[in-house]
Design goal:
Elements (H helix, E strand, L loop, with lengths): L2 E6 L3 E6 L3 E3 L2 E3 L5 E3 L6 E7 L2 E2 L4 E2 H11 L8 H14 L7 H19 L2 H11 L5 H4 L3 H25 L3 H13 L1 H14 L5 H16 L12 E8 L8 E8 L13 E5 L12 E3 L2 E4 L2 E6 L2 H8 L3 H8 L3 H18 L6 H13 L1 H33 L3 H21 L12 E6 L3 E5 L1
Parallel strand pairs: 11-13
Antiparallel strand pairs: 1-2, 1-14, 2-15, 3-4, 5-6, 6-9, 7-8, 9-10, 10-11, 12-13, 15-16
Helix pairs in contact: 3-8, 6-9, 7-9, 8-9, 12-13, 12-14
C-alpha cells in the first residue's frame, strides 16, 4: 500500500509520497513514485496502486521514461494537453500493446470479485478449524458436509438469478455491446470460472453458472468506476504548469486492464483547477461539475489515506462507514420511537383507541423516520467535513508559499505512515523515506529534502 498527498494553490503544487511497496507479503522501501518530465520540467507524475501498466505488465517508471524520450523538444500549452498526449502515447505505442498479462489480470479480478460475493472461503476456513478439533465433525454431525455444499450452491443460485433478471431487462443496444465484449474475452472468462471452481472444489455443474456471472459483471463494468472498483488499477496524478499557464492544474486518472478496446485502459481524469473568485462571498470552498473540481486550494490524499482523511475531515472513514452510514440512524430511530411511545402512553387524555392509531402510524412509517434521520446525519457530516473542518485546512493551504506547501505535504504523509504502522503491527505497508516534490512556474519540479 501507499500513502500519498497532493497539495495545490495558485502558487505551486506539492506532491508527497512514501517509498514502500508490498510484494508477496513483504514490504520494501526505496521505491520511486514521483517522476519529473525532463522534456517539460514544469509537469510531474505521481503513481500509486499497481506499480506496472497492467495490460502488458511494464513498470510505470519505464512507461514514463519512454514518454519522456518520445516528446523530447515538445512543449505543452496546458496540463490537459500533456494528459491527452500521455493517454494517446500509452494507447498507441507498439511496445505497450496489451498481451496475455491483460487477460491474467482480468481473471484475477473476476475471481476476487466472485470470492467477495459468495464467500466460498468460509467452507475452507471451517475445514481448517475442524482439523484442529479432536474427532471427526463430519461423522459426529451427519450431513454437515452436505449442508456446507448446499449453502454455497444456494448463494451461487441466488446471485445467478439476480444476474439473469438483469440480462432479461437489457435493451437491444446493451445486449449487443455485452455480446461483443464477452466474445472478445471468452477465453478469459472460461479460464477464470474453471480456475475458481477448481480452487474451491466446486462441482463442474457450477462452472457454467460462474461463467454467466463473471461474463455479465465484466461486460456491465468495462471501465473503472469512480466510487466502486472491483479491479486492480494504478492511480496516476499529472500536475503542474503548461507553457501558457500561470496557475497550476492537477489531473488524476485510474489505469487498469483493458476490457473494452473502445474505452481502453484509462478512466477519464478528475480535473482540479484553482478557482478565481468572482464575488466577495466566494470563500474558495470546493465546487464540482461532473469530474471537474475547483477551489482556492486543494488537499487530495491518495491510496491508503484513512488517517489523512481523519486529520483533514475530523471524521475517520471507518467510523463514517460502519456507524454514521450504517448503524446510527437505525439505532436512533429505534430509541426515539421507544421514547415517543413511552411519552404517548404516559400522556393524560390519550385514550386506547387514539394510542393504537398513533402506534400503528409509527410502525407504518418507521422506514420514513429512519430515512429522515439518515439524511440529517448525512447533512451534518457533509457540513462538518466539507464546509467547516476541511475548509480550515484549505484556507491555510491557499496562502502557503511553495516551501511551506511541501513541508505540510511531507508532514501529513509522515503522520499517515506512522499511524498506519503502529495500528497494524503485522506488516509495514506504508513507510520508508518520504519523497516530496514542489512544482512552480518559475523553477519547475524540484525534489525537496
Amino acid at each position: 500500500m501507499t500513502s500519498q498527498l497532493a497539495l495545490m494553490n495558485s502558487m505551486a503544487v506539492a506532491l508527497a509520497s512514501d517509498s514502500a511497496v508490498t510484494i508477496g507479503g513483504k514490504t520494501y522501501d526505496g521505491v520511486k513514485k514521483i517522476f519529473k518530465l525532463n522534456f517539460h520540467p514544469k509537469i510531474g507524475i505521481m503513481i500509486s496502486g499497481v506499480a506496472n501498466y497492467i495490460p502488458c505488465n511494464i513498470s510505470w517508471e519505464r512507461v514514463i521514461r519512454l514518454f519522456d524520450e518520445k516528446n523530447s523538444g515538445v512543449e505543452f500549452n496546458t496540463v490537459t494537453e500533456c494528459v491527452d498526449s500521455f493517454k494517446k502515447f500509452v494507447r498507441e505505442e507498439t511496445v505497450l500493446a496489451p498481451n496475455s498479462e491483460n487477460s491474467i489480470s482480468l481473471q484475477y479480478d473476476l475471481i476476487s470479485f466472485i470470492e467477495g460475493v459468495i464467500e466460498p472461503g468460509q467452507k475452507r476456513r471451517f475445514e481448517e478449524i475442524a482439523r484442529d478439533i479432536p474427532g471427526d465433525l463430519y461423522s459426529e454431525f451427519e450431513g454437515l458436509d452436505a449442508h456446507l455444499e448446499k449453502t454455497l450452491a444456494t448463494k451461487i443460485e441466488k446471485f445467478l438469478g439476480m444476474i439473469s433478471q438483469f440480462i432479461q431487462e437489457q435493451d437491444e443496444d446493451v445486449k449487443f455491446e455485452h455480446k461483443r465484449i464477452a466474445k472478445n474475452h471468452a477465453e478469459t472468462i472460461n479460464q477464470a470460472s474453471e480456475i475458481f471452481c477448481e480452487k474451491y472444489q466446486l462441482p463442474k455443474a457450477h462452472v457454467s453458472k460462474i461463467k454467466i456471472i463473471m461474463s455479465y459483471h465484466l461486460c456491465a463494468a468495462p471501465g473503472l468506476e469512480k466510487n466502486f472498483n472491483w479491479r486492480d488499477y494504478t492511480n496516476v496524478v499529472i500536475a503542474g504548469f503548461g507553457s501558457n499557464q500561470i496557475i497550476p492544474e492537477l489531473h488524476d486518472l485510474k489505469v487498469g486492464a483493458i476490457v473494452d478496446e473502445n474505452i481502453g485502459s484509462f478512466y477519464d481524469a478528475d480535473i482540479h483547477t484553482i478557482r478565481v473568485p468572482e464575488h466577495l462571498k466566494d470563500l474558495g470552498g470546493l465546487e464540482s461539475d461532473g469530474n471537474h473540481y475547483s477551489a482556492s486550494a486543494f488537499i487530495i490524499p491518495y491510496a491508503q489515506s484513512d488517517e489523512i482523511q481523519n486529520i483533514l475531515n475530523g471524521v475517520h472513514p471507518e467510523f463514517e462507514k460502519r456507524y454514521l452510514d450504517m448503524k446510527i440512524h437505525n439505532q436512533l430511530e429505534e430509541q426515539v420511537t421507544k421514547s415517543f411511545i413511552s411519552c404517548v402512553e404516559n400522556t393524560p387524555g390519550i385514550g386506547p383507541a387514539t394510542r393504537k392509531k398513533i402506534l400503528t402510524s409509527i410502525e407504518k412509517n418507521s422506514e420514513q423516520f429512519s430515512d429522515v434521520i439518515k439524511e440529517e446525519i448525512g447533512r451534518g457530516k457533509r457540513h462538518w467535513k466539507g464546509q467547516v473542518r476541511r475548509q480550515r485546512f484549505r484556507a491555510s493551504t491557499k496562502n502557503m508559499d511553495p516551501m511551506q506547501l511541501a513541508k505540510f505535504a511531507k508532514k501529513i504523509v509522515e503522520i499517515e505512515a506512522e499511524v498506519a504502522y503502529y495500528s497494524n503491527q503485522r506488516t509495514r505497508s506504508v513507510g520508508g523515506d518520504i519523497l516530496v516534490a514542489s512544482i512552480t512556474m518559475e523553477d519547475g519540479l524540484q525534489f525537496v529534502s
